[in-house]
Amino acid sequence: MSVLRAGLAPGVALPPGSSLPRINGGRPRTNEYLFDGISVLQPEPGQVAFFPNIDAIDQFRIESNSPPAEFGRFNGGVVNLTTRSGTNEWHGSAFEFLRHDSLNARNYFAPTGPKPAFRRQQFGGVVGGPIRKDRAFFFGDYQGQRQSIGRTIISTVPTVLQREDVFSEPIGGRVPIIYDPATTSPVAGGGSTRTPFPGNTIPVDRVDAVARALSARYPLPTTTGTANNYRPADIETVNQDQFSGRVDQRMNGDRGQVFARLTRFHETFAGARLFDGRHPARLRGVGRVGPSVRQPSWATSIRRAGAIVNDWTVTGLVTLQSGVPIAVTQATNNNAFAGFGTQRPNLVGDPALPSGERTVIRWFNTDAFAAAPQFTIGTSSRNSVRGPGYRNLDVAVLRRIGLRAGNSVEVRAEVFNATNTPALGPPNGTFGSAAFGTITTAADPRVVQLAVKLVF
Asked: Which range of residues forms the domain containing residue 189?
């Protein structure tokens, strides 16, 4: 909820899939994030250490313009929140959110066969009450996550012919010429010349034994072609546990109040494997890995809510975004010796394709680029192409049922990307790569979430 409110605040943009906002055009890492007046921003690499339990948040505010002098060390804005404290009465809540692949659609790039696994449980609760009436109070919260998601990884491996040292297949639209290094000889006037291998085939006795053994370690391709020809699916697991405890003490004579809060966050991550061998990374203590954030060219969000019969409520969120700019670089940096960290190719045509010709195999006109020779700076601008646009509809249906003594139960069903519109990722922008101009990633398809919450 706090993320949604951030996205609707003036001067704040929340790109799709991001948990951190841009404020006044600044990067998320330049914002300040204060929980109970304490910064939780890790300056490098610009991530928030942990996200509090939503039910433990008391007040939430974004300072986007002309903040008071008490705030500093930021360029964009200040995300400021305070956590709840206990009261003279015991109150709390418990919740469970569930996602399962049997309720979801198939990812755009998922291979044929059984649907990849998507299992996610988020659960937890809060409780607060008095330690000493009117003087000391306690508030604690816990939230956990158990997530297993089948990820489809698209990569490139040697083809069957390439394993046999035959390089007659086109790469990036052309067949490369494989030269015999043993035939290198100087030519008059400077330079050298070499003779290609017959049929672009390297003789068996010319291949290093170590290189041959390494080549055998690669798996066989799962699809045709020399690029993006390997699409394995594997399970990525992310398990989290987070605890917080807060104690408040009022001073005698109502002269003030002091509090202390302790938070512990623990995450275990095991990423999907590309080849054989799983190497889980275990993170302990306070930490969180956030997604990358991209600034949209234009974006708008529309939120509508209305009550329907029998106390049911339906809400919706529509998000529209144009394609983000993509920088095109050159795989071979001919000017690295001169201190140029990035080499751009030459622009020799219009890189934009008509909408009817754009596909994940060729999102933009790759023929509009040519290699920039050494000692020259490519004529391609920084953001010469645009990625896919984004259209999304989220819908939620919920009902709150009152119980005795002011207690209640809330049941909810949420559908993310209800229209199942593929949220395609950015195209490959490396000129000279076999995958240049292709798209190999997509965000989640339609995902259904069921939830129940008890408030007491």
From this structure: 160-216
